[in-house]
Amino acid sequence: MADEQNLDTQSTEANPAATEAAGENLAARVQTLEEQLAAAQDQALRAAAELQNVRRRAEQDVEKAHKFALEKFALDLLGVMDSLERGLELSDPNDESIKPMREGMELTLKMLHDVFKRYHLEQLDPHGAPFNPEHHQAMAMEESDTAEPNSVLKVFQKGYLLSGRLLRPAMVVVSKAPSKDKP
Fold first, then answer.
1. Helices (H), the chain
2. How many domains does the chain have?
3. SUPFAM superfamilies, per this entry (predicted)?
4. Claim to verify: residue 181 and residue 126 sit in the same structural domain
5. Do 40 and 10 lie in a common domain?
6. What is the pLDDT of residues 127-150, one digit of tens each?
């Protein structure tokens, strides 16, 4: 056994270049493995983050689908609401011959308002409010001495929001300052 240790010591002493080369090879191999491990850890982190993003996007899509599933149906009902409101506006409340019809229209309109409220359909009636291009569509501009410039003078058609998102903009006439040319 002592002879074997002697041989190992002699071989190491006899070939220091081989020992140094083996050490460098081992260090290079460790460095390569460390780089591969770092790359694999980075890839795993990215995959986990991507999975989390996909999961979050899917949850948001489902939430939006639930929230705005009624959008097309609600758009179709807006015409019914407009017609009922217009009919009440144009009919004479003092005319006894149409009083039962008006009462029926008022009840129907109230029921429709309740349904809209239940399904988060909010009416935009911006008369007198400042013009908001996100919720209003300007159909015309009109000079006004009484109203602030850039405020809503008339509402041609009310707008609606569905769960806070614009369903239909309000069609409005916007005021502007009177021109100074007038005598």
1. 2-14, 16-68, 71-90, 99-118
2. 3
3. Coiled-coil domain of nucleotide exchange factor GrpE, Head domain of nucleotide exchange factor GrpE
4. yes
5. yes
6. 889 999 999 999 999 998 888 889
